[in-house]
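Aim 2 progress update. The chain analyzed this quarter is reproduced below.
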Amino acid sequence: MAGLSVHGWVTLGVFGVAVLLWMVTRLDDTFVGLAAVLVLVGAGVLREGDLFAALGGEAIWLLIAAFVLAAGLSATGLPTRVALAVCGRARTVRGLAHRVTAALVLTALAIPATSGRAALALPVFLALATALACRERVVRALALLFPTVVLLSAVATLTGAGAHVITSQLLADATGAGIGYAHWLLLGFPFAVLSSHLAAEVVLLLMTRRADRRHPLELDPAHVAELAGTTVTGPLTPSQRRALAVLVFVVTLWCTETLHGASPALVALAGAVLITAPGLGTTGFGDALASVPWSLLLFMVTTAVLGIALTSSGAAAWLGGALPGDTADELTFLAVVVGVSAAAHLVLQSRSARSSVLVPLLIPLATAAGLNPAAVAFASTAAAGFCHTLPSSAKPVALFASVEGAPTYRRTDLLRLSAVLGPLTILLVLAFAWAVWPALGLPLR
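Predicted structure tokens:
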């Protein structure tokens, strides 16, 4: 048990207590993270500058600007209009499920954080639930489908979840290179599309009968849009066109970073200024800032700083060396990593906390096993998108667990879905990590 410095032991102790408090108490996650960081600063493991530098880090600015962009886009009603235009033309239950899935996957390109996307999707679900009030099983299936796809499709983009930004930052701190927006999109979007549409089929088979799927739908897009308080006919409004132009501008620059050199955070800030500019923007700057989940961002800072402490103190490398690992069989190693990552939501509800706990440990483990740390960390983060077992496992699941004015799924429905979707997600991550992501520039070795 020798070979670890005093600072390393202190870091492990503080880290272990923080994880325990996140798991078994109702203390606020951000409060626990802040307290842990302050203890490490007081013990001399971290400098004050480490904490304050993280507060002003590029990752935080990226997410602040992304939330401002999302507020400006949402204020125009464009996301809801597009979603209803896609869903309202379905003529079968299966067609509706896959149209809903496609629309929700696309929202990952524009709206950061799964809770924000779930809140944005709720009016669409309520409009469909009202239009399909006479088909309760279909409505219950949709209530389960919406949060399921929101969670699985988040992996499509770097800004899809705070955990993704933490993973990239931890990789950059430990190895000198993270995963940029364009590369994350290339890796994550195909996985998000396939996993989401497979999940839609699982939900349909578990929640509806063959007669439900065969009976045609008679949805009037204009009527469904009216129920949601918007419209799907006529040209886009001036504010919607401006918001769309800003979004295209930002995403294009994000995807072409290697050509112009501007960081994703700088591009996002430019977009945030444009979408809130007087006379040009679609919402006020103050209103947009009010929509930023500051507690979530502060929690991300604390967990990222904890990850830095684990790495800089040598605790992560020491613990990685102390844990058993199979360096001979990379598939076995990867299967264990993916399985643990998918199951971690049962003890750590926060996606950001799971990445902050797992990724600093996986980086030295992957190195010791002769594997690419970025590939292992990305596979772990993708697997962590599965968090569907309990209503408390993720905010989108909790949001749709009890919807006033519409029937929703039962806890037993969620457990049945989890029993099928969990193994399916693990197998899909393993298949992508083994055969697809290496071809897209993320080799296992």
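The first helix runs from residue 6 to 24. The chain has 23 helices and no strands. These observations will guide the mutagenesis experiments scheduled for the next reporting period.
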